[in-house]
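Researcher: I'm preparing a figure for a lab meeting and need a structural model of a single chain. I don't have an experimental structure, so a prediction will have to do for now. The sequence is pasted below. Please return the structure as tokens so I can convert it later.
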Amino acid sequence: MPGFFMTAARDEREMRVRLHHYYIKALREFWEQGILTEAEVREKDVLVIGLSYFGTGVIAALEEPFLSRGARVDYVPLFNEDFGISSSLPEVADVMKGKQYDLVVLAEGLEQEPHFAKSAEAVAACCRIGGKMLLFVQTPDALDEERSVLRCWERVWAYDLQDIASIFPGFAMLFHMRTAPALLLAAKLEKRREARPLHPTAFNLRLKRHVSEKKGLQAGFFHEFHELDRIGTEECTDKCRYRHNYLQKYEFFLRDWKEKPLRLLELGVFKGGSERMWKRYFPRAQIFGVDIDEACRVYAEERIEIRIGDLSQDEMLESLKEIRPHIIVDDASHFWSHQIKALFALFPALPSGGIYILEDLETSFHPHLFPTHGDAPLDAYTVAERIARVAASRKPCLEGPFAEEITAVGMATELMATMLSSCIFIKR
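Model: Understood. Here is the structure written out token by token.
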């Protein structure tokens, strides 16, 4: 079959676009190849689930083909409060108040949701007997795709045909297709009966094998740290499991600060979700958020102070030292120069035992995705790497850009921890 799925391997540019473009292209291919027909949607009830984090433009692109063909379309956003609801997959059936649909389109979510069996059951409940489901899931093979656009975000699960059969036992497989190289599995299913999953499995990306939900959830050192991630998911910060999956790791380092009176400084406010998360997790903390966008002032509330300023300016960084923060989180522009400058300027302001978190280091590793961010002689991760060398050896950095600054931070660093797209520094 010609088209998107068969040509993806030969199109280098396609591997450089954001993941949501795959879903839109896949749906277009379904229409063009007759896998999805007008007769199946005209005057029918259609439910679209997912992708809300990317904004209204993507949602409109997903809904429009159904609306233009005469369907009645409902949309359930996952992880986006801007649409009046922040749902998770296990809540979908409750959110729709038991309504059932002729067609259910699940664009994303099964990869990140820890409780995949409950999630699948909730989605299946939204589809009536004889109804269809369009399912898009990431495959285990995507792990080995070096050009994958997924490497900024940490997933929990992936799925192949045997997994889909196990979590949707009441459905018959009508059609399936993979991208080549393998990234997405796109499937069309028909609901034949009501059935609960008896032995559901999925491919756990940490264990690299098909396991039950329980075994997958217990995998890894950080599985018991879930409070901060729960709050982060509720407050729609992209630090949570639905995007970067930072928070379980952060909680390991931050839990001893939980009940202490402290000052937390976050660079970058965006929609205020992180600030609200920190406020809830640290009940005695004063939270300071800094952003260049004046509109962020609306996120100020009790125990949350919002400051407006340009973090590339020395004067602004100097003024932030007056806060005397105990914890600093850099989630601002992600430009190399800004990340490096803020680290050098603000790390000295931390007390002994203070924590500096440098986020979203994907800009250091994926220049094709972030072509404008490489605006310094070293990327931010290489700077962190050199700081780690100084901290480990207690020997100064003697050459290269920022040698003096790297030495100063490295000599003052007690411990460093790295993870996917993030780095934690603890001051001596």
